[in-house]
Amino acid sequence: MQKIIYTNNLSDAIRKLVIEFEPSSVHIITDENVKRHVLPGLGLDYNVISVNSGDSNKNIDSLSKIWSGLTEQGATRKSLAINIGGGVVTDMGGFAAATFKRGIRFINAPTTLLSAVDASVGGKTGINFNGLKNEIGVFASANAVIISTIFFSSLPQQEILSGYAEMLKHGLLSSSEEYTELLSFDITKADFESLLPLLEKSVKVKERIVDEDPYEKGLRRALNLGHTAGHAFEGLALQKGLPIPHGYAVAYGILVEMILSHTLRSFPSQELYRYAAYLKAQGYGFPDISCSDYDTLLGFMRHDKKNDTLSEINFTLLSAPGKPLIDQSASDSEIIAALDIFRDLLH
After folding, report:
1. Parallel, antiparallel, or unpaired for β 323-329 and 105-110?
2. How far apart (Å, rounded) are the C-alpha atoms in residues 258 and 169?
3. pLDDT digits (tens, 9 = 90+) for 157-198
4. Tens digit of each residue's pLDDT (9 = 90 or more) over 121-163
5. CB–CB of 107/143 below 8 Å?
6. What is the DSSP track for 41-100?
7. Does 1 score more than 70 pLDDT?
8. Rounded mean pLDDT of 257-261?
9. Crossing angle for the helix pair 157-174 and 192-212, to the nearest 10 degrees
10. Does residue 310 surpass a pLDDT of 80?
11. Longest dimension (CA), the chain
């Protein structure tokens, strides 16, 4: 089971883990923004490897730079990598560590709400490839994850909303009560101390699911709620040169898949309106899509890695909050109808 530590004394937690693991060398993997603005305040005297910031740099070139850095800094199979950053860093740094010399130990220290609640926990690592999200990767759990709220106050509101979308997803998968608690929380006026208990609950939802199904053979597919449609929104936005945050794409994807849940599996219609109203009230905005984009969106959905064939698009749907349905499919006409309703609800 993955060790998850909740603390706002990040430097102390890292030093204690380094003493516990007794590595031959320690290598911090991060991006240029974190290297410039965060690392100086942590006072950690370890090797540093940095890559360019942003999802567009989550690619084979950045991965190669990390592998080269580990080699140049003398890393061995007994070394330790510490990924300090957002989801791009924890995904890519985890993949680099899992494949370097057939695998070295690594720690994730997420600096964003999105990576704390999602990317840093659960053992999924990887990079984007050929314009497709997370197309290449492996399952490899961090030896430890250190979750802290100390960085959140400096994050732009967009980053907070992005992470909160994944928390809403976990609430929907967990129970009606937990989901309602999250909808009652105004994330735009958040005191991050009061967010921490909700964050811990959210991470534990993912922990429970991953512990039961670490390699996504069954139940873990529930965590894909919102992601089939969400990755399509994300891919379209990148194609247009107007990228959107991952969490925004997931927030939109959840609504599309709620609509499919309603039309195909009798998910309550009032939940569609409640969720759409929350997105509008919190300022998630609306993706730049029109009817002319539908074929492109369907194309991205067909290439989603969760599909078993290119002809059938796989979704996680819901019969009610707390009752996910995995391995569900929908026809092109059903998805297009859902996209029409989606646009109506958010406009």
Report:
1. unpaired
2. 11
3. 999 999 999 999 999 999 999 999 999 998 888 778 788 889
4. 888 999 999 988 889 999 999 999 999 888 888 899 999 999 9
5. yes
6. HHT--SEEEEE--SGGG-SHHHHHHHHHHHHHTT--TT-EEEEEESHHHHHHHHHHHHHG
7. no
8. 98
9. 50
10. no
11. 58
pLDDT tens per residue, range 54-68 = 989 999 999 999 999
**How many whole angstroms separate alpha carbon 227 and alpha carbon 335?**
14
CB 253 within 8 A of CB 237: no
Cβ–Cβ under 8 Å, residues 187 and 156: no
- Judge whether 235 and 291 are in contact, CB under 8 Å: no
DSSP annotation of 115 reads I
For 151-164, give one letter per residue: b (16+ CB within 10 A) or e: bbeebeeebbbbbb
By the 8 A CB rule, do 258 and 318 touch? yes
Three-state DSSP class for 317?
A: strand
Phi, psi of 59 (to 5 degrees): -140, 180
223-237: average pLDDT: 95
47's CB contacts (< 8 A; 6+ apart) are 25, 26, 27, 28, 69, 73
pLDDT of the residue at 291: 96
Alpha carbons within 13 angstroms on the beta-carbon side of residue 159 total 16
Amino acid at 285: G
What is the token pair recorded at 109? 């220290």
